[in-house]
Structures are given as C-alpha cells and as structure tokens.
TrEMBL record:
PANTHER family: HTH-TYPE TRANSCRIPTIONAL ACTIVATOR RHAS, HTH-TYPE TRANSCRIPTIONAL ACTIVATOR RHAS-RELATED
GO molecular function: DNA-binding transcription factor activity; sequence-specific DNA binding
Keyword DNA-binding: yes
Keywords: DNA-binding, Transcription, Transcription regulation
Descriptive protein name: AraC family transcriptional regulator
Pfam families to which the protein is assigned, alphabetical: HTH_18 (PF12833)
The species this protein was found in: Halomonas nitroreducens
Domain HTH araC/xylS-type: 6-104
Signal peptide annotation: none
Amino acid sequence: MSTDMMRAEIWLQETLGTQQGIEELASRMGYSSSQIRRRFRSSFGLSPGTYRDRLRLEWAARLLIHTPKEIRHVAAVCGYQNHSAFSRAFQRHFGQTPRHYRQSRRLHLNRQRRDLSPFSYRIRELPARCAVLTRLYAGFRVLDDLRMWQRHVHDAGALPEQLASASTIAILHDQPLASELPRLDLGVQLPAGSGDSLALPPTFRLQQLPAHPYACLTLEHRDQLRPALLYMACQGMAPDGRSLSGEAPQLLKRHDALELRVPLYR
C-alpha cells in the first residue's frame, strides 16, 4: 500500500460528512482526478466514490443501531443532503429500509443480551489526547500482542525515540459493527499537545483525540475483545444502559492487561 493511497483513504473517511469531492482530494494530493481514481482502484479494488459511499452507509448503520438519532439526522451527519436518496442507497446496500434495519438489529441485540456473560466497566470522561498512528488494512493478528506492535509496521523503527515509553493504542474501525472495509489504526497515545513538534516518518500521522465519555473495560487477553464489544453493544439496548456513539473503540496496552475504551453517546 503506497503512502499516498493510505492518506487518500484516510481523507475519504475523515470527510464523510462533507460534500468535498474527488477533485478536492486530487488537488490536495497533487494528482489529476483520473490519476487518483486509477491509483485508488488499483489499491482498494473500488473507485474512491464507491469506497466513500460504503463507508457512509456503514457509519449510518452504526448510528442507527447504537444511537437515538433520528433517521433524518443520521442521513445528514453521514453526508446525505437528501433523505430519500439516503433511504434508497441504504436499502440497496443492506436490503432493508433504515427504519426496519434499526428495529431488526436492536431486537437481535436485545435477544442476545439475556445470554451474555457480563463484563465490569467504568464510565469515564477522558481528557483530550493525541496519538501517533499508522493505518493497517490486513495483518490484524498484531492485536494478539500489542507490546510487539512495531515489528508488524513499516517505518516504525524511524519513530522518535521519546515515543518508546508511550502507551500502545489501536483504534478499531471495523467495530462495534463488522465492516466490509476493515481498517486498523495502530501507534502510541500521548498527552494533548505533546506531539506537535515530532518529526514522523511518512506512513505515520498525528491525530487528535478529543475529550469524550467512554466505557472502560479491563481485558485479561485478546480473546475477550469481541465478547466485550458485544456485551457493551447489548448494554446500550437496556432501559438503564448508556448508548454507544458508534465511533471506533480503542484498545490500549496497560502493563499486563488490555484496556478497551468504547465511546459513548453524549
């Protein structure tokens, strides 16, 4: 995966709620629109427009399942200016209208909730932070041992030495709902403002992590990750539960344990 196309893919994800087009992306990258489309398709098997449409629909699905947002609001947040166009695109992709999809998926989670083993969690309002991250599209077995993450990542050896003691963080973009376009951000977490002057290799970027409420769970091993995410998704369906935000969960390496942070709806 070329660094340019990785950055193009990240830009598409970060602009889902806007009307910025492929021409804007091409201008930012220093390519023509036809070059961007050709190179992106070669890397991801889809045109940039189709790729972004799928990301928008998957994001909409998460918001429909996990948040109380009205369907019109979900459509607008995901970049659709026309509610009818959103409903048609959603039904074409998922085989159900947004309303029926929301009802059926919530009913399924409610049924599962009764049979799940519980996880203990704390709700914390975490302060703003930042992270030095690279993106992976395969090879997610790195999550089995986050202590050794740098062995699995190109250019990790070129990171500044002062990052060696920072906490490892993984941002799971294909959770809490599985994605047809799996993505994983991997790197280290830093206090807010501490990464601004870092010289980073081309495959890494500095990303701001704003203050936000999270459900925080301590996991003894990697195999608990999916059951814990399912448990939190089901807890959001409970009458006294906190809804999830639909945003990507974070997994941090904490000494001999893992800490799962699931963003909550504010």
